[in-house]
Design brief:
- The chain contains three helices and six strands.
- It is of the alpha/beta class.
- The chain has a single domain, classed as Metallo-beta-lactamase, Chain A (4-Layer Sandwich).
- The protein has a six-stranded mixed sheet.
- It starts with a strand and ends in a 13-residue tail after the last strand.
- The relative contact order is 0.16.
């Protein structure tokens, strides 16, 4: 099995991170959909043109800086988006701070050290 790794943006600048990992079956993970630091406020259609938006993918956000999730609203709405609970919590305050619209819903995994259910009853 060979995975394909494509760095759509982020190798020649700081910010705007967007990396794709594709499986031969067609399944894809997109790691970050960051807003480039040099992008003007309010600018749209900034996702890298090399990122195929016509094929399904799952987005995983590495952390709460906008240069890693700032283009989330441009990703197709049927793509699931995952982030840690801490990242989601920090992202939730951005609209209050910057006056930008609230980001779409995120799926989260538990914080580190959170008790895990074993599936067994005591």
């Amino acid at each position: 099995m060979t995975l394909t790794l494509t760095v759509h943006r982020g190798t020649r600048e700081i910010g705007g991170s967007c990396i794709e990992v594709a499986h031969p079956s067609g399944a894809r993970l997109v790691l970050d959909v960051g807003r480039p630091l040099e992008a003007e406020r309010g600018a749209r259609n900034l996702l890298p043109r090399t990122l195929d938006l016509t094929r399904p993918a799952t987005v995983i956000l590495s952390h709460s800086h906008q240069d890693h999730w700032g283009l989330l609203e441009e990703v197709p709405s049927d793509w699931p988006v995952w982030a840690s609970a801490d990242t989601a919590e920090l992202m939730a305050v951005v609209p209050d701070l910057l006056g930008t619209p609230a980001s779409r819903g995120l799926r989260t995994w538990p914080r580190r050290g959170a008790p895990r259910r074993s599936g067994r009853s005591a």
